[in-house]
């Protein structure tokens, strides 16, 4: 006897399931879209918060660096104003503490005197100027004349004593505003004249001048104006050094000068030829005029870019901060995975319900067998899905490492640890805070290692910008920087007569900084460091030597110390990545020289390198 009629009878009394697959699909898709939307909003809020914090850090770094420059100029102005008779030697002594390492991007610091005629006032009534100022070059386009009478260059360029700067409109405006304000004042940006003369267009930077009025010390604000002290600063170099640590590869930053509703890009980090940030926040906004009014908003976000106003010596500039690829951005990949997975599950369930609904009339008699088979199939599908998800996670991890350089995950980890410390640090117990501190220290050490690796990898390929380099000046600046926090000791470092050579100033400064720094660092405990920097003429070049009285290097390790990651047996307990000497050798070889180490007479090591003379031109 067939059971089908009975089954058919029960089926006739059950509700109609034809619309159930559609209901399942609609509900599943709705839930998926809701979860995806909530996740996206959460990621967006997190990204905005992290970007705001990073922008605040960048703003603080730029403002602090700018204040440091203006403070240095204020101190120099006070020192000069206190002089009743100023000679070139006095000016050199006052400026002796300045260096490109301390004021990165600064080109020169000039003392400027006004004159209503083509000649300066009687020196007995003013200051004793540089003898080179006797040949004045007046500019007939503007009066009164403003002559550079004393000059301290910081970038190795020639002195411009005697030049009339009254025709340089941005500098003239800054000097006039500085007199009105009684404070150091920054100018509008422009290309320095000496950069126009000696640099190709592709390497010129927008620069600015910070001018401070010099008055008699007895009446610094209301006394008779004696002149101006002006510091010229290259914008790109200034921003690059300022953001090397503050940005840390996490964001793109642009510094712009705003006039009306137009933003003019001054500098950016990382460097780019064109501006891609300020346009969307200023020129492309309908409410730009309102934002650039007398009381602009302190900050705002537009199209994923954070905009902030920063004041530099009385002039307000615009900072544009945007996240780099893969950091502090909403995780669109996660949104896509959730959406696709939810949609597939919803459609799969709808299809499954549809199949069950269509086949229900014919399969009721075999419901138990079909249910068992279905359960087994679902179990197998779950096993396969678990395996697929595991493989997917492995592939995603590999793709992440392949798509980004090693710094991307480090910067992300640093940011997340920073957020964790800010938001949940107070709720962690002592052990949790210790673990968090160790994690942040590990990330910082790894980042320093990657920085050394990057310098080591690019040392062979970075462009060589040759110029005349005064090694004596560089060595003195390095020693001043390295011993700034040490007790005074005139015997600590002795600098002999060093030559002027042809080479890249930044790279040669890095070599001397590394060798002198190692000589000061690798000293036995309790023994004062003794370092001697000297030079001797060799055939077609120079041999520069940095000798110390330190721990020394065994003979069998002298060649290996220039290999990457080499750490000698005697270097235990001293910090370092093992890449410094390897980078130095690559730099010297790029200059056509050689580098080595030998015993120092009386103990210690004597590191030397050679620099060939430039080829003669016909």
How would you describe this structure to a colleague?
Helices cover 44% and strands 19% of the residues. It has helices at 4-13, 20-81, 88-94, 169-181, 193-198, 235-246, 278-281, 288-291, 332-363, 367-403, 407-424, 430-458, 471-482, 505-521, 580-590, and strands at residues 106-115, 145-153, 185-186, 207-215, 225-234, 251-259, 262-269, 299-302, 305-312, 315-323, 467-470, 493-495, 500-503, 531-538, 541-548, 595-599, 605-612. Strands 2-1-5-4-3 form a 5-stranded antiparallel β-sheet, with helices on both faces. A hairpin with a 5-residue loop joins strand 16 and strand 17 (605-612). It is extended, with a radius of gyration of 34 Å. It starts with a helix and ends in a 6-residue tail after the last strand.
